[in-house]
Amino acid sequence: MKVDYHVHLEEGPYSIEWLARTGKALSFFSDDRGHTYEWMESMADKLNSRIKEGCFSTEWLDLYLERAGRLGLKEVGIVDHLYRFSDAGEYYRKHIYLQNDKLGKMQQKWLDQVAVMPSMEQFVEFIQSQKMKWEKHGIKLKLGLEADFFPNGEAELAGIINQQPWDYVIGSVHFIDGWGFDNPETMDKFEREDLIALYGTHAAHICQAIESGLFDIIAHLDNLKVFSYRPDEGLLEKYYEKVAVTLKKYGVASEINTGLSYRYPIKEACPSPKYLQKLAEQKIPVTLSSDAHYPDDLGTNLDMATDLLRKNGYENISIF
């Protein structure tokens, strides 16, 4: 069965690049003939409508439905990043490094730019209201949340997650000691780090996330490689194995997430083939995820991900 369980409707920061990428997505679904003045006017109107209506609109979500139908997907999970909601503002301000220096100011700016949604309730109500429409098209629409794990933040995070009736919750690690390592503006920090130790810390955080009992799925297990800062994987296998064993012990699933393979310099899905071997050895349940942030990216490289699973002995894909 073809599924995509890690799909976003929007992501900041909001910039000229964001406008261009959103316009590209709208154009992908347009039958208008391009490169004419009339086409440009039409696209400007569509982009203006998209901005005014926001991402929680039937017009925008219907593009995901159209794409899912074209691809033959049977289940699609729409998630949003927890940091986008005001409900979680205090949680993130407590755990992200926001001191009055270069890194802190940069991350404060980023948080101000992306934390734009008033409440989780709006997102939840919107997705729930669309499930029947998707069902009529033969596709199950699932409601999910992607929440960042921070050590010692478990109780606070549980209180936030439990406010809403999620179909599943994805746990992710995007921060180490408050540093958002997948932000290209902070990439230079990798140059000053002991990479093997950094990967060890990242793996330890992932294991803590698994042990917390808060998550159904742990996302992109080796996203630390995002900008190609990765030692020889032979030096990392002990971390891969530790994570796999911990997933097995606590009965938590993971994913093949293709997002890095088409959106970031590393050009490789998460987990790497070597990492996936460790998951397969432990028979860890795995689902499929494109990590799409636009409707035209839905399902990207999932055939490749399916082939990787088959080569590692997987016969089933986990659903929630």
Task: Give a description of the structure.
It holds the Pfam family PHP. Keywords: Amino-acid biosynthesis, Histidine biosynthesis, Hydrolase. Pathway: Amino-acid biosynthesis; L-histidine biosynthesis; L-histidine from 5-phospho-alpha-D-ribose 1-diphosphate: step 8/9. The chain has helices spanning 16-28, 37-53, 58-71, 89-95, 102-114, 120-136, 154-161, 195-211, 237-250, 259-263, 273-281, 302-311; strands spanning 3-7, 75-81, 140-148, 168-172, 175-176, 179-180, 217-218, 254-257, 286-289. It is an alpha/beta fold and 320 residues long. It contains 12 helices and 9 strands. 45% of the residues lie in helices and 12% in strands. The longest helix has 17 residues, at 37-53. The chain is globular and about 55 Å long. A 5-stranded parallel beta sheet has the order 1-2-3-4-7, covered by helices on one side. Helix 1 packs across helix 2 and helix 8 (195-211) runs parallel beside helix 9 (237-250). The protein has a single domain (3-13, 54-311), classed as Metal-dependent hydrolases (TIM Barrel).
Q: Given the C-alpha coordinates, what overall shape results?
A: globular
Q: How large is the count of helical segments? A: 12
The gyration radius over C-alpha positions equals 19 Å
Name of the CATH first level: Alpha Beta
How many independent structural domains? 1
Quaternary organisation of the protein chains? single chain
Mean pLDDT: 97
H/E element order: EHHHEHHHEHEEEHEHEHHEH
**Any low-confidence stretches, pLDDT <50, length ≥5?**
none
The CATH level-2 architecture is identified as Alpha-Beta Barrel
From the N-terminal CA to the C-terminal CA, the straight-line distance is 13 Å
Helix content class: 40-55%
Structural class: alpha/beta
Question: Reading side by side through the largest sheet, how are the strands ordered?
Answer: 1-2-3-4-7
CATH superfamily: Metal-dependent hydrolases
Beta-strand level of the residues, as a percent range? 5-15%
Number of strands: 9
The CATH topology is given as TIM Barrel
